[in-house]
Amino acid sequence: MRMNEEKNGNIKTKPLRIAQIAPLYESLPPKLYGGTERIVYYLTEELVKQGHEITLFASGDSITNAKLIAPVNEGLRLKKDCIDPLAYHIIEMQEVIKHAKEFDILHFHTDYLHFPFSNLKVPSITTLHGRLDIPELQDIYKVFPYQKLISISNNQRRPLPQAKFVKTVYHGLPENLHSLGNGTGDYLAFLGRISPEKGIERAIRIALATNIKLKIAAKIDKADLAYYENDVKYLLNHPLIEYIGEINEQQKTEFLGNAKALIFPINWPEPFGLVMIEAMACGTPVIAFNNGSVPEILEDGVTGFIVDTMTQAIFAVSQLKYLSRIKIRQTFEKRFTAKRMAEDYINVYYSLINVSLKRVYRNGNIKLNEQL
């Protein structure tokens, strides 16, 4: 333990030994799509940069400056012979248990999977990256009411008000990952997944109504193939619509930076919406439907337009010329950098460790390095 101990049970802000436990579906960083894994990667690298000792539990094809413990050799979504991805996550939990005493804090990004295994003598926190309006989650959080949680937006918490949320930490990107674009591509952009909740049909209707080209950079999950074949595929056969497929991180800068706007026509309670801040990092305005986290991330009339109807969305396209791409980029730099995200998490880590230390002092007869 390299942190200094104070008399009242608090710790001084010395470097921490932190475990970042990622899902195994994608490598870190992801080769293509993968929002959760991308955020865990940015957080890990920023924490290393700030001088903390980080161990990353992730797939073996991950690239990181942290120490890597890999329960599987490659990301499971692109692993051709993987039939049961849960098996590798159970192996991952066993690796965490085996190494737990080496850390000051465990940071899980594996949803509720680790809850039965997390009764360890090490402080832990879980960032929930997905939707929480699933009925079965009510029973999960009845059984595990004391798990300490991080939300990625305040709206994300609404279905589970009884859960033990410690803080909301908005996602962040490396400041130099994307650069300011000029928006001269004369097209609208859609980036993400083709699925019912992401609203691709709305995006296409907006493009047709405004007579502006729509470029679609999106993946199609197996679960959404039927939706794509039955409801979307035929809509792509129009000269204004161009389907590009999945793109990597380097391609996003040009794709978003040249776009007149990002269309974010969601019709579900989006927990965060990483693509919104990716667009902001390029200075590209966002036209988003008022669902989920959107009002927390976007500033209406500054970084884009928040709309409730198709009529409003179509009108918003004509108002894009009044927005400043420089100001959008400045807003990103102020609110959504990886540095800010890491600092928010570090404050949470120290707070939880201090609580744990005070409990040790109250109970007595427990040495610091045995507890942590």
Automatic annotation (TrEMBL):
A GO term, aspect molecular function: glycosyltransferase activity
UniProt xrefs under CDD domains: GT4_AviGT4-like (cd03802)
Highest rank taxon of the organism: Bacteria
Domain Glycosyl transferase family: 183-313
InterPro entries: Glyco_trans_1, Glyco_trans_4-like_N
Record carries keyword Lipid metabolism: no
Domain Glycosyltransferase subfamily 4-like N-terminal: 33-140
Keywords, ordered alphabetically: Transferase
Matches recorded under PANTHER family: BLL5217 PROTEIN, GLYCOSYLTRANSFERASE
Protein name: Glycosyltransferase involved in cell wall biosynthesis
Source organism phylogeny: Bacteria, Pseudomonadati, Bacteroidota, Sphingobacteriia, Sphingobacteriales
